[in-house]
């Protein structure tokens, strides 16, 4: 049984990042009904920002200093790519985010090059041993940063004034405009927050595996996580992230030796099975339209 604990710890470690990234994805979808197919590139840009700052600073200050530019990057994306297309055909918006992903892929390679880059400094060592099981420093940092940030975001969405405004806009944007709510500024801030969360996840990934195009493939996991939790459930994204992380760990331990490659397909298979029973996800709200 003790040999299972390292896999579970690894699952929780990845699950924390899945949930963090999915939070930003679901927040954007809930507020604007836009499916951001460039979320993996947001992760990549945030990781490169952190890498650049880490050349001059220790990693933790570099990460903190990367967050404001990442927020500004999200604002610029919303203003330049998304806002002009709001109200248009949904296919046009989807194609715009796919085009944005391609532009960011090429732009990052043009600026930083195609080679995998490793951060010159790491996060302070926080690993410890408990009950004969070693908990690595990466797991501690992921949980220490991702989980409180996710819970704080959920609290602010439910209790703070701006959280209430975001929820009001997500329910009825026209009514929110009629009531004088500054929807344009709030929606821009939502995109900025999404980029900030992606940067935090990207920096934590970069600290463990370096910075390169491989991070985009990690970003693809956000889609099954968001759908599993429910596209309109911010809290569901966090729970689904941990759930899929643990399921991947169990698959890696028991199924991968028998079915090589199965772990990579597992998130999408789980989502397919869940959607057959609950088309709106585990925590999504069921919408009934009367005509």
From TrEMBL:
GO molecular function, one term: transmembrane transporter activity
Domain of life of the organism encoding this protein: Bacteria
GO cellular component, one term: plasma membrane
Keyword annotations: Amino-acid transport, Cell membrane, Membrane, Transmembrane, Transmembrane helix, Transport
Gene Ontology BP term (one): amino acid transport
One protein family per Pfam: BPD_transp_2
Keyword check for Transmembrane: yes
TM region(s), chain numbering: 6-27, 34-53, 59-77, 89-112, 139-157, 186-210, 222-246, 258-277
Membrane as UniProt keyword: yes
Protein's membrane topology: Multi-pass membrane protein
Family (UniProt): Belongs to the binding-protein-dependent transport system permease family. LivHM subfamily.
Name of the featured protein: Branched-chain amino acid ABC-type transport system, permease component
Lineage, opening ranks: Bacteria, Thermotogati, Deinococcota, Deinococci, Thermales
């Amino acid at each position: 049984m003790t040999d299972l604990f390292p896999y579970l710890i690894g699952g929780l470690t990845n699950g924390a990042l899945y949930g963090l990234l999915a939070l930003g994805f679901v927040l954007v979808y809930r507020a604007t009904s836009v499916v951001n197919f460039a979320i993996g590139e947001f992760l990549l840009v945030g990781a490169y920002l952190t890498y650049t700052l880490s050349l001059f600073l220790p990693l933790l200050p570099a990460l903190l200093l990367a967050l404001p530019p990442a927020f500004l990057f999200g604002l610029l994306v919303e203003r330049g790519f998304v806002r002009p297309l709001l109200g248009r055909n949904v296919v046009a918006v989807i194609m715009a985010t796919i085009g944005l992903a391609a532009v960011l892929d090429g732009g990052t390679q043009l600026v930083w090059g195609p080679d995998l880059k490793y951060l010159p400094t790491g996060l302070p060592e926080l690993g410890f041993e408990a009950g004969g099981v070693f908990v690595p420093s990466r797991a501690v940092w992921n949980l220490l940063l991702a989980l409180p940030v996710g819970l704080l975001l959920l609290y602010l969405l439910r209790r703070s004034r701006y959280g209430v405004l975001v929820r009001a806009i997500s329910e009825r944007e026209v009514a929110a405009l009629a009531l004088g709510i500054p929807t344009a500024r709030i929606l821009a801030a939502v995109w900025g927050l999404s980029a900030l969360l992606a940067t935090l996840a990207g920096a934590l990934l970069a600290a463990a595996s370096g910075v390169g195009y491989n991070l985009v493939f990690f970003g693809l996991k956000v889609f099954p996580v968001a759908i599993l939790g429910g596209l309109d459930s911010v809290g569901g994204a966090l729970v689904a992230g941990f759930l899929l992380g643990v399921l991947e760990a169990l698959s890696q331990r028991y199924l991968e030796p028998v079915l090589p490659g199965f772990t990579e397909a597992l998130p999408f298979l789980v989502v397919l099975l869940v959607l057959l029973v609950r088309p709106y996800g585990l925590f999504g709200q069921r919408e009934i339209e009367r005509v």
